[in-house]
Specification:
alpha+beta, Beta-Lactamase, Helix Hairpins, Heat Shock Protein 90, five-stranded antiparallel beta sheet, 12 helices, rod-shaped
Amino acid sequence: MRFVTMRHFNSLRLQILLSYLAGMILSVTLLVLAAVWVLQDNTLARMDLADAAAGIADDIRYDDNGTPIGFAAKVEDVTWLFESVPRETAYRILDEAGNVVLHSGTGNSVWPEGNASLRPVRGLFDFEHDGLTMHGATEPIMHNGKIWYLQLTASTRFMELMHRHIALPLVGAGVALFSVVLLLAFGLCAYITLRYTLKPLKEISQSASTISPYSLDIRLPVKGVPTELTPLVNSFNQALERLEQGYRLQQEFLATAAHELKTPLALIRAQLELMPETEPRNWLLHDVSYMSRQVQQLLLLAEASERQNYKFIPVKMPQLVAEAVAYLQRMADAAQVKLNLELHAFDIMLQADKGALFTLLKNLLENAIQHAPPGSAVSVDVFSDNITVRDHGPGIDDAQLPKLFDRFWRGAHKRDTGAGLGLTICREIALAHGWVLSAHRMQPGLMFRLQLRADGEVSA
């Protein structure tokens, strides 16, 4: 479970999505903290008051003498606010000497007596009025060579009412709506982007999973791969090329060595057969036969390991199995073993290399005959999806089953002088066809099952 958890956490898609989610949570948190800060401090409200004063100052109307007489229409629409809450907010316009030339309906009742503390200087100021703390802002205006000063004031509780109970709920609703829209919009975009970005990586993984010793010519696709991963894919493809070249050289060496050894061994055998029959001559002939068999098996193994050596054609499986059984009938008779062929399916046509498949069946039958006790039987059963070959010999232990297909491995009960490559060749041929060859311990004996792939069937 720990490994599975770490594997999922290392997912590039998951990490990007988690990063996006963390960014969203951080953004919403910062917005909430900013809203809380506004609730606890009037600084932002006072800055809004100063901005309002600066904005209204541009909309003052003047008479022919240049004296302020009111505001533009868009500001007049909100001046009612100063009239309806006279104790909470007010405005006035001062001349350069500090005299009031225009004020809200409350007159100077809101403003403190004397203007010393409220000298017309641009900026923020505070004062007390009827037990209320008033905040104000002054904005200078230059008009026709004269300087005028617009002053706005509002009480603390009025600004708190406007910000805490009116503005902030609206801001909170806006933040929530913005967060939901951001989460959905960016989440959808992130998902779509990741899906199409990681699609080439999925295709690369599928291509890499199909590479085997029989398909070393396959290369990972580079088209559509993210730029950051292109060097990695190219390096992997170059490694595959080197691996393929080394594998081909090894197989060529094996085949060449086997070919080169066949002729000298044939000449030696011919010379020995011309010599008078003696015990040393017979032993030498036995050794030469053993070496010739090994060389032949090595050559077959080299050919079976190269997929390009196969020529796939439609093959009637029951007919080919019958031919292999007939071919080994003489060997079975010499070993006093009976061959029983049972056809449970008759019309099986598969795409296969006929010669390689015959070699596979022949090796399985030879192995079964060699291990079958005299007087016993070797059973060959042909089904629609598999072929089984079973003997009634001593068999092997369960621990030795995985070793059956290893090169040069020979069981303790093996009676012939084989090279230990017959079953290895069978496995290579089965893999080249996409089939599965397995061994099963029976009571008594051993059974080999050749599981045929359904997609290889041509007709039934």
